[in-house]
């Protein structure tokens, strides 16, 4: 299938992320934002408690992780389960949809990690050419 055929086929989908009012834009933002991608990738390893997940996603603040988990739960990608214990225990895990999304994101993550030498060389070359850092 060539790119023209793919574009025509994509235009027949009920949602179009390129349309300003399409609700898929919000989900795409939740999934592809830095913390969404890293959170989904981490949860692909298995369920985590909040603080375990925060340690796994190095650099995320408590507030940002909380907002990210809330958005991903709302989109049906993450399941939150509160255990009625004292103190309360809350576990987060991927839903089947979330697992599918995470697998696609991990393919991209692994690709980028595998090509970082090329990216770093391109940055170095760019900086030399432009005289910036």
TrEMBL record:
InterPro entries associated with the record: HTH_HxlR, WH-like_DNA-bd_sf, WH_DNA-bd_sf
Key words, A-Z: DNA-binding, Transcription, Transcription regulation
HTH hxlR-type domain: residues covered: 22-120
A Pfam family recorded for this sequence: HxlR
Stated name of the protein: Winged helix-turn-helix transcriptional regulator
Protein species of origin: Streptomyces yaanensis
């Amino acid at each position: 299938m060539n790119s023209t055929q793919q574009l025509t086929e994509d235009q027949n989908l009920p949602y179009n992320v390129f349309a300003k009012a399409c609700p898929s834009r919000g989900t795409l933002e939740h999934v592809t934002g830095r913390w969404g991608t890293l959170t989904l990738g981490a949860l692909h390893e298995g369920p985590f408690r909040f603080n375990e997940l925060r340690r796994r996603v190095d650099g995320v603040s408590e507030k940002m992780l909380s907002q990210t988990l809330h958005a991903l739960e709302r989109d049906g990608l993450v399941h939150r389960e509160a255990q009625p214990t004292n103190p309360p225990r809350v576990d987060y895990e991927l839903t089947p949809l979330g697992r599918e999304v995470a697998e696609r994101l991990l393919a991209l993550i692994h690709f980028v990690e595998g090509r970082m030498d090329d990216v770093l060389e391109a940055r170095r070359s760019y900086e030399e050419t432009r005289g910036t850092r």
